[in-house]
Amino acid sequence: MKIALLALLFAAQADTAYFQQDIAYRIEATLDEGTDVLTARARLDYTNNSPDTLDSLYFHLELNAFRPNSAWARRELEYGERRFQDLGPDDHAFERITAIRVGDTPVRPEYRGAPDSTVVAIALPQPLPPGARTTVMIDWQTRLATEPRRQGRRGRHHDFAQWYPRIAVYDHTGWATRPLLPQGEFYGEYGTFDVTLDVAADQVIGATGVPVEGDPGWAAARAGGPEPWLKRDAYDAPAPQPLGLLDDAPAEGRKRVRWYAEDVHHFAWTANPDYIYEGGRIGDVAVHVLYQPGDTAWDDGVAVEHTKNAIAFFSDLFGPYPWPQITNVHRIEPGGTEFPMMIMDGSASEGLIVHEIAHQWVHGIFGNNEWREGWLDEGFGSFLTNWYFEAKGAPPSMWDSSLEGIRRMERAGQSQPIALESAEFRDPRTYSAMTYTKPSLVFRMLRDYLGEDTFRRALKVFYERKALQHVTEQDLRAAFETAAGEDLDWFFDQWIHTTATLDYRIESARARQEGSEWVATIEVAREGDAWMPVTLQVDGSARRLDSREPRQVVTLRLTERPTQAVLDPDNILLDIQIDNNRAAFEVTGSR
Ligand SMILES: [Zn+2]
Q1: For the chain, N or C: smaller number of CB within 10 Å?
Q2: What's the 412 CA to ligand 1 centre distance in angstroms?
Q3: Fold match, 13-367 / 503-587
Q4: The pTM of the whole model exceeds 0.85
Q5: CA 46 to each of CA 24, 57, 59, 165, 511: distance values in angstroms, whole numbers, following the listed order
């Protein structure tokens, strides 16, 4: 009886205990620029660290999103866009498995979400029990789309994002196998990547990882500044173990570069013979920047400096950048996308570079599930980007347009809970407002409520506990609660999970003289369902009200006649009506 009970307790514990699958990829790939087709072979060693026996494995074939009839293309039709639905046979992307086996057993890829083929399942020949390892060999061919979306090709420039059969995450909720959709990006399993790329000899390559063998082309493309710091020995990379796709030596006019990376959940790369290289270093981290001819906003070390400054700022905030290098490239598409050790940017704007570098932490180091909890990724990242600019001296008014935009949506009843899954938001505009903008303001409210020191301590706690792991809202809440020493459910529940609105109002502000003193009486009313401690400022002095009650009366004894009462004087709260936040005192006559 006792033993059975213990076993039950352990079972219950095992269900909730954190686990992370272990993956190791070896990949060989060769790019034919005549057809733009990449032919590749991967060996994936997969260790099941979960408490469950697995009977299938799932992979993302994300490039299949960028073609007609994908779930992505069909979702875009709902928003009146036809970018991928109308792409012709020479222009759309594809990612096609040509052979797959588990151990020595050939298996059949199953496209259970057809016609979408961004997720493929394979049934395992034998179930994979907890603690067991299996090996999957995959041959595939892939091509990027001429219409860029994170990935893309233009002439000889190829941006290889999400280009290999990417093992889906298996976590405490099971397999994360959503098809790739316009709203919400990545979720990845951490592991090791050993990738050999065979390309034309004049290509200049940037990638996740360090080039352990071969010439990425940086020295020849260097515009000035220091010599490229390749850091070939950053890892104790094993001797190469060929997979048999590539010949012993590259063909004439070709070259091979072997890349190696550990503790990353995605491997991206880019190749362009026209890239210009500039490098630098920040502490032990090599910085590589690859830009295009005529990029006057990138050159003379400008992009290198922005990259270094952002790495320094976020290392200080959370904890050190954990990888040996960071590569920042000028990609084909505008905007930016983050990958571990690599950011692909459409411009050298400081705001864009800082935002994508922020994602090295809130995405790369803290591996959130961006389509399930996008705010943990983009909202956090947007907040951190603004914090960087605050630290550089930007005025608080930098938040005003975000505040006004969200207040307007809330007054119109158009907000949706921040915690919704990305694909559930009613349209791209609402997704963007609720995933980037509103949560950045919510983080700002939390920082103001806790104080900056406590908030910073929470980020360190989060890093110490969760660096290079998958994270959820619960992990972040726990870090803040540890640092603050108080329960914060009231905060997260309201602001992340509801659309409750907040409106404090000064109902009345009266003052009367009593001898040499003034007695000030302020009535504060709360409308709406949300509440937050709010600062009440009377002339030069401020105090924080608990503000839970719908009506509060505050009495102050003052030496001078008060003139004005103001709620939330620093304009931090998501208070949807701020014109009722201040009032001049009415003098009611002495007694
Ligand atoms: Zn972002």
Answers
A1: N
A2: 26
A3: yes
A4: yes
A5: 7, 10, 12, 13, 72
Span 13-367: which CATH code? 2.60.40.1730
Cα(219) to centroid(ligand 1), Å: 31
Cα 573 to averaged position of ligand 1 atoms, centre (Å): 23
CA 399 – ligand 1 centroid, Å: 17
* pLDDT tens digits, one per residue of 240-272: 999 999 999 999 999 999 999 999 999 999 999
For the chain, the domains span 13-367, 385-497, 503-587
**Ligand 1 mean position, distance from CA 381 (Å):** 6
**Can you state the angle between helices 473-484 and 438-450, rounded to 10 degrees?**
20
Ligand 1 centroid from CA 354, angstroms: 10
Domain over 385-497 is classified CATH 1.10.390.10? yes
Per-residue pLDDT tens over the stretch 197-253: 999 999 999 999 999 999 999 999 999 889 999 999 999 999 999 999 999 999 999
CB under 8 A, 24+ apart: contacts of 477-483: 480/446, 480/450, 480/455, 482/458, 483/450, 483/454, 483/455, 483/457, 483/458
Q: What is the DSSP letter of 244?
A: S
| C-alpha of residue 378 to centroid of ligand 1, in Å | 5
Q: How many whole angstroms from 362 Cα to the centroid of ligand 1? A: 9
**Residue owning tokens 């954190």:** 18
Domain covering 503-587 in this structure, CATH number: 2.60.40
Distance (angstroms) between ligand 1 centre and the Cα of 63 equals: 20
**Amino acid letter, 215:** D
